[in-house]
Amino acid sequence: MKCLDSLRPKVESWQLIILANGKDLTPELTAKAESLTPLFTHLQSDIQLTPGKARNLAMESVQGEWIYFLDDDAFVLPGYWDIIEPLLFDTKIDVVGGPDSPAGGMNALSLSLAMTLSSPFCTGATFSRHKSFGKKLQFADEEKLTSCNLWVRTSSLDGTTFPEDYIRAEETVFLQKLKKLGKGMFYHPKLKVAHFRRSRFKQLWRPSFYAGYYRSRLMKEKLKKGNEAFWLPAFFVLLHLLIFIEPVSFWYLVRMYLGIIVFVSMGLAMRVRKFWLFPIITFLHWFIVFMYGVGFLSERLKRMKS
Question: What is the pLDDT of residues 90-140, one digit of tens each?
Fold first, then answer.
C-alpha cells in the first residue's frame, strides 16, 4: 500500500499497471489503485512468473510514452516527482533511474542488509544502485541502474524485452541491450526510492549465489575492461583453501580483511546511528561476497564440464 501512496505524479493522465504475480489482488489494493487513476490495468498470473516474464507481460499493456518500473516493496520519496518531471522532456534521455535506499521500520537484519549492499567492499561496481553516487545527472550503464527504480522511453525499446531465463540478472541483460542500441542512459543520485529488504537470513543465500552465477554467465556476452573486478569474490572463495595448505598465511589475510570490513561496517552503522549493527554488517560483507563467489565459480565449473 505504501508503494501506491507514493504514486501521485503531477500529470493528470497516467496509467497504473499492477501485475498480480501468482497472487490475488486484494479488494483494498484494487480500490486504492482505482482511486489513483482511471487508467488502472490489473493483470493476473495464476502461477508465479520469473521477474523477466512478469515485466514483459506488463509492458504489453503500456499506452504512454514512458514506462516506470517500481517494485511492490519500494516507494518513491518526497521530491522525486520534482526531479524526474523535467528529465522526461529531455530528448537525449531514453533510460533514467536512481538508487534505492533503506525504508523505515525494517528489522535489524533488513537494515543491515541495506547498508551492506551500499558498500563497494560488498557489491563492487554496482554499489551506486543502493547509495547515491555523485550530485547531478550523469551517464550510466547497467552497473548503476536498477529495475526497481527505472524509467524507459517506450519508443526506444525497438523490441527489447527482459530475458525470461535469467533469475537474478534480467535487468542487467535488458539494460545491456539498450546500451548496444545506443540509447541515452542516465543516472540521477537524487531519484531515490525507499526499498524494503529481506527480513530473514535464510532468504539471503539464493540471491547472492545467483547474482554471482549469472554475472559469470553474462561475462561471456560482455567483455570489457573492468570486468576483472567481478572475479574478486571467486578468488575470495578460493582463498579459504589456504586454511588447509598454508594456515599461517590464511589467518594473516583473514585478519587484514576483517580489519578493513570492520572499519567500513562501523562507518555504515554510524550512518544510520545504530552502532550496534556493525557486527551484522561485518558478517553480511563476508557472507554475500562468499556466496556470490561460490555462484560465480559454479557457473564456470558447469561451463567447463559441458
Answer: 999 999 999 999 998 999 999 999 999 999 999 888 899 999 999 999 999
Q: Specify the pLDDT at position 112.
A: 96
pLDDT above 60 for 226: no
Q: Give the cell for residue 295.
A: 555462484
Q: Find the Cα–Cα–Cα–Cα dihedral 23, 25, 28, 33, rounded to 10°.
A: 130
Cβ pair 173, 257 in contact under 8 A:
no
Which run of H or E residues covers position 12?
none
- Please tell me the distance from the alpha carbon of residue 86 to that of residue 63, in angstroms, as a whole number: 20
pTM, whole model, 2 decimals? 0.89
Q: Rounded to whole angstroms, how far apart are CA atoms 158 and 64?
A: 15
CA distances from 135 to 50, 95, 191, 253 (A): 34, 18, 11, 36
Q: Domains for the chain: give ranges and CATH numbers.
A: 1-202 (3.90.550.10), 204-306 (no CATH)
Give the three cell numbers for residue 197.
Answer: 529488504
179-209 residue pLDDT tens: 999 999 999 999 999 999 988 888 899 999 9
According to DSSP, residue 47 is labeled S
Contacts of 114 (CB under 8 A, 6+ apart): 101, 102, 103, 106, 130, 195, 197
What is d(CA 216, CA 223) in angstroms, rounded to the nearest whole number?
Answer: 11
pLDDT above 90 coverage of the chain, percent: 57
Average pLDDT over residues 245-268: 91
Are 99 and 251 spatial neighbours (Cβ–Cβ below 8 Å)? Answer: no
Which ranges in 153-277 belong to alpha helices (H)? 170-180, 205-218, 232-239, 242-245, 247-271
d(CA 58, CA 49): 12
Instruction: Report the SS3 class of residue 48.
Output: coil
The type of residue at 286 is W
- Asked if 153 contacts 199 with a C-beta cutoff of 8 angstroms, the reply is no
